[in-house]
Amino acid sequence: MASIFHSGQKTSEKNQFFFKKVLTFSLIIGCLLLQTASTPYWGFWAHKHINRLAIFRLPPEMQVFFKKYIDFLTENAVNPDKRRYAVVGEAERHFIDLDVYGDRALMMLPKHWPAAVRKMGEDSLRKHGIVPWHVQAAASQLTAAFRQKDARRILRISADLGHYIADAHVPLHTTRNYNGQLTGQDGIHGFWESRLPELFANHYDMWLGPASYRKDIAVDIWKVIESSHAAMDSVLLFERQLTAGFKPDQKYSFELRNNVLTRTQSREFSEKYHRMLAGQVERRMAASVQMVSDIWYTCWVNAGQPNLSLLAGNAGEVQEGKAEAAEHQSWLQRLLHVRPESDN
Ligand SMILES: [Zn+2]
Fold this sequence. Notes:
Blueprint: H1 9-22, E1 26-29, E2 32-36, H2 44-55, H3 60-66, H4 70-75, H5 79-82, H6 105-108, H7 113-120, H8 122-127, H9 131-148, H10 151-168, H11 188-200, H12 217-244, H13 248-251, E3 252-257, E4 260-265, H14 267-276, H15 280-302, H16 322-329, H17 331-335
Parallel strand pairs: 2-4
Antiparallel strand pairs: 1-2, 3-4
The site of zinc ion has 6 residues, from helix 5 and helix 10.
């Protein structure tokens, strides 16, 4: 069904944006190589860190399995970003441009996908991003994988789900001004979610206690979107205010990364901005870890708490095959037939 996988113009704009961020922007000046600092979305470092930390909040019955594959779950936390161009329909799973729906977006948008499709139309929803609905779908998939005791699917979907949940916690994933491009603040996306965590996250408090059961994943993921969106104004405002007091050569500096001289926000600018945000990045990151493990745990409980110790030796090669990638795309089609009609 071609329309299921339609991607709007906005999505292709975001693809270009992503390309710009992932590709190395380098200039050879004499023997000097200069590179613009750029890492995609919650930076790769943060995504990996979030999935890894989430494992330690799980109960022992789950840890027996998840810890065995801790490196897989860590490394593959970035898979969804890597396959944005290989898989049609992937790009829109990482964001929602809430502001295109007006001030009452959170009141107006149905929490569940079928009702949202009936109200807004699927192409329109996809154009402006579907992360809160996709998290629900991926959680359904994970519950099914636990029920089937399918070790490979449990690992693959858990890694992906951790990524989407973490993306939903990033304020700039909830606005069409996702990189400050509408307000002359280009580059703020990577600054907030890559540069700041890489500089300061080692000092964050990530001892969060054991995972909790989530009674209603739909309600909870929409609360995440609401709090991310509420934080967005200060993300943009503080950067603008701070920039006004900095000369460009103070705002940016060059650092050596992987033997490449990279232009990035200076340490002084980063520290001041981080202080102005008053713990915001830490709070969003901690909330990400919390929700990732809570939802992994909830899916396992909903599946009847299958004995994972029996699976621990069974996962074998867990890389995604072609058939699985195709199956991964079709979740929406299936969900359309199982969600209640009155859902809103
Ligand atoms: Zn992403």
